[in-house]
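Need tokens for this chain, all 342 residues.
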Amino acid sequence: MTVVRTSRQIQLAARPLGEPVESDFRMVTTEVPEPGPGQVLVRNLVMSVDPYMRGRMNDVPSYAPPWQLDQPADGGAVGEVIASEAPELPVGSLVLHGLGWREYALVPARQAERVEPVAGLPSSSYLGVLGMPGLTAYAGLFEVAAFQAGESVFVSGAAGAVGSLAGQFARLRGASRVVGSAGSPAKLRFLTEELGFDAAFDYHDGPVRDLLRQAAPEGIDVYFDNVGGEHLEAAIDSLKVHGRVALCGAISLYNSTDRPVAPANLALTIGKRLTLRGFLVTDHGQLRSEFRKAVTGWLTSGDLVVRETVVDGLDQAVPAFIGMLQGANTGKMVVRLAPDPG
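Here are the structure tokens for all 342 residues:
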């Protein structure tokens, strides 16, 4: 069997100072060899762009290794196996793997997860609601923040891939009040009219502390933090005694060139006996089966609303990534590289 193709891929060309720009990346065409033993050749159908990838552009120690200059970027992707030297992943299999940012990927079978198509859902669902963002929302809310029915929840970045799910999970499990922050009137309507949030505010409209007090006058029990900075400070102010914070992300700081400043009201965490806990989704893989069962049920019943922002073509991956960091997406941002197989 000979399957040799050329594949376009996106490489990191420069490390950014502040906000990334398109010239930090380059498009390169390479030859893709046929798979060897234990490998599969995958035609990528869709790839993910995620906030955590901004940190991978920096050459600093972190939980995810930095992208290397003049080497292809990588990240989540779903594709179809078109050639296989791994019996467990025959030709035609749909797989989730970590070699996105390219059209074709030569993937070790041990680093690919075979996934089954879900009726009515695109393959990109395994990059969103059924994938890493969904499990992040589920683990952060239920295991890290230990949410219980009857509690009030505040989610920042609530119209994004993780936030839009965390708020809905809280509502579906009996939250007394779900409040979200977002960056535009259209996103606020999305939160309240489509996702069922009880209240939402635009963080551009004033001090976040004041906006949160107005949206949750009786305080909050749980804060799901995707933003950090001023949002975290506001949440500490509004949290009730024994409140909990799931520290998922800090997108407000990712492009900053200034030294970050801690919330000025950290002393409140002592008297309120608050718990602030950072987490990585990779530490909660034991929840995957429970998570997918619960989420599939909510999707089947129509109780869970999913929105994706889809752009087409590998040449649009960099603009999509930069746009996502600037808040251009509602729900999960994905890049479609090829149609789903019929």
